[in-house]
Design a protein that fits this description.
globular, alpha/beta, binds zinc ion, three-stranded antiparallel β-sheet, six-stranded mixed β-sheet
Length: 263
């Protein structure tokens, strides 16, 4: 999350509208569409509208939790999964205000001051301050993949049997990028074309990276925009095992808020 983007006027708006606060977090964390924390696929989930138009908690209070369902692995998730905001009953709007208060000032604020400003119990304020300091102490993670990055497409879903690989009927093409010794990201594409693949590579991979793909022609033109482009032969077992197996690696467009709980 971009702390600079959180100014007082944004905060004022978000603080009075919990739904807007959730949407703000979603847009910040998922600029390219929701990312499933279970399988790492990008922008292939749909929003679950609460059945009665409003979601309630077990105690009958209104819940502002925004749930998504992955179109691939079918699991549900929210934007809080894997963040310091997860597993707390504190509204997202209060978290955002706390982040602003702790990061905007030169010296930050104490838990006591946080509790006064947010109108919450000292205990909750202490918990928030602890988590926010923990996240702040971690180096910001880079947004783009770097080093050696392998790119490949796989095909998911569909009922067609007996036909595999490129052009498989009724299947959804997914482009997967794997940073060697790093994270993996996957994204659904309408068609596997040089243009589509190029757009994803430019968005997700640093220009100084070494790209590794097979010799499929769609990679030829975009490959020229990176420091190096090596092609390997699928059949010879040169692609990393986790790439060949598919996308079962969780990957997130990283932000420093990705830090999970400090405990
Ligand atoms: Zn999933």
């Amino acid at each position: 999350m971009d702390v600079e983007g959180l100014n007082l006027s944004t905060i004022a708006k978000l603080f009075s509208d919990e739904t807007a606060a959730w949407q703000y977090l979603e847009q910040t964390r998922w600029p390219n569409g929701p990312i499933c924390p279970h399988c790492g696929i990008v922008n292939h989930a749909y929003f679950l509208e609460p059945e009665s138009g409003i979601r309630t908690t077990r105690t009958g209070d209104t819940s502002y939790r925004r749930l998504w369902k992955c179109g691939d692995c079918r699991q549900k998730f929210s934007v809080l999964v894997g963040t310091i905001f997860e597993d707390s009953h504190i509204p997202v709007s209060k978290w955002l205000l706390a982040v602003h208060l702790m990061c905007a000032g030169k010296n930050g604020v104490s838990a006591l001051e946080l509790s006064r400003q947010l109108g919450i119990a000292y205990r909750s304020a202490w918990f928030m301050a602890h988590r926010i300091r923990y996240a702040m102490a971690r180096p910001p993670l880079v947004d783009k993949l770097s080093g050696t990055v392998e790119a490949d497409e796989t095909y998911i879903g569909g009922k067609a049997h007996g036909k595999r690989g490129r052009g498989a009927a009724n299947k959804t093409p997914v482009v997967t990028l794997v940073e060697r010794d790093g994270e993996a990201r996957s994204q659904v594409v309408a068609n596997v074309t040089g243009e589509n693949i190029g757009a994803i590579l430019h968005e997700q991979v640093k220009p100084d990276a070494t790209l590794v793909t097979d010799s499929y022609p769609v990679y030829t033109k975009p490959g020229k925009d990176f420091a190096a482009h090596h092609t390997v032969d699928h059949g010879a077992g040169n692609m990393p095992a986790r790439m060949v197996k598919g996308r079962r690696r969780s990957g997130c467009i990283a932000t420093r808020w990705k830090a999970s709980s400090p405990s």
